[in-house]
Every structure is written in C-alpha cells, then in structure tokens.
Amino acid sequence: MPGSTPHPHYDPETSRKPEDLYISRPPWDIGRPQPAFLDLAHAGAIKGRVLDLGCGTGEHALMAAGLGLDATGIDLASNALHAAENKARERGRRARFRRHDARQLADLGEQFDTVLDCGLFHIFDGDDRAAYADSLRSVVPVGGRYFMLGFSDREPTEWGRVHKLTREEVEAAFADGWRIDSIEPATIDITTTPDGIQAWLVALTRI
To answer: Is 153 exposed, middle or buried (0-12, 13-18, 19+ CB in 10 A)?
Structure first.
C-alpha cells in the first residue's frame, strides 16, 4: 500500500516483518472504510459470508459485520489484528480476525460469498500472483463475488514495491474461473494527501 514502506500486510521481497508496518499508524489506515467499498455496501453488493483479505486494522470486516453479515478478516500483521479486535469490542460488532496468508486460503477450510481486497493483490507478481488467484478460487463458490481496490497505472507517484496495475494485468490474472464484471477508475483514500491514490475498483464473479 501507499508510503515509503511497501505494504501494510507483508512484503515478500524484503525481510521486513508485517508488524513493523503498524508500529506507527500507516497512511492507508484511515480509520474508516474506503468510500468505494462503502458504496458497494450501500448498493447491497456485499452479501453472505464476507472475507476481508489483508484486513489490517479491520475496517472492511467491521463494515460487513455492521451490515449483520458473518465477517472474517485475515492479515499477517498480528499487531494490526489486535487493533482490529479492539475496534470490534469497542463498536460492539462481531467479526473474526485471523493471522493467515492470503496465498493459502484453502487451509481455512471455509467458503465465502464475498471477498474484499483493498491493497493486497497489487503487491504480488509472478508466482505469488498466480498462487493468490488459485487461493481465491478455492474459497469462493460459483456465484460468489470478489471486489478489489488496487493501485492503477494511472497513478503518477511511486510507492515502494507496489505494482501499478493495468487493466490487461487484472484480466490476465483472473482469466480462469472468473467473470470480470467491471474494472472502473476509483481512489484509495490515505491520510497523507486529500487526493488519495488512483486505483482500479475490480468486480469479479466466480463461474
């Protein structure tokens, strides 16, 4: 995700520990859901059992829980997960938070109707990207939805090792087992600039 550090959850290319990215509040931790995902919630697009991948401090899992949905968030940063659990208690919302690798979702032994991803897919390339796509297919049944917010190639600034995504890259990554419903320009809000980061909002359906 944004900033001089490569990502809020983990960086497969360095020895940085996931917890290191939450020692102080990172710019992507805005204390509320991303507007693009909140719009999906208001439109009724987030349904059933919800999985928030790379959940950080849990805003999107808690958003789903606030809709009365069964919500789970996973991340590799244990301190971020601890913060998410504290938020859940403070807000009186029921959500589960687990330390787990998004490239190994089959190990959860569960299925999810809606999967949310804000700022995780765009850290992967090569074998990791393929493993992530395979992992997603293992937990989303036919008809399930995947919504992703990722850095767009339209964003002019550089942010660590984040991969700026083209439409073609997204289409190629999810060519097997998914219908691409839409790839639309969007913004990822951050705390360090009012303009946010240029992103793609991707909507897929499992087929």
So the answer is: middle
Cα–Cα dist 205/207, whole Å: 6
Over its C-alpha atoms, the chain yields an Rg (Å, rounded) of 15
25 φψ region: left (φ > 0), alpha (ψ -120 to 50), beta (else): beta
- Domains of the chain (ranges, CATH numbers): 30-206 (3.40.50.150)
d(CA 118, CA 199): 10
Please provide the average confidence, as pLDDT, over all residues in the chain: 90
Report the distance separating Cα 135 and Cα 66, nearest Å. Answer: 27
Does the pLDDT of residue 160 top 90, yes or no?
no
The backbone torsions φ and ψ at residue 173, rounded to the nearest 5 degrees and listed phi first, read: -65, -30
Kindly state the DSSP code that residue 143 receives in the 8-state scheme: T
By the 10 Å C-beta count (0-12 exposed, 13-18 middle, 19+ buried), 56 is classed as: buried
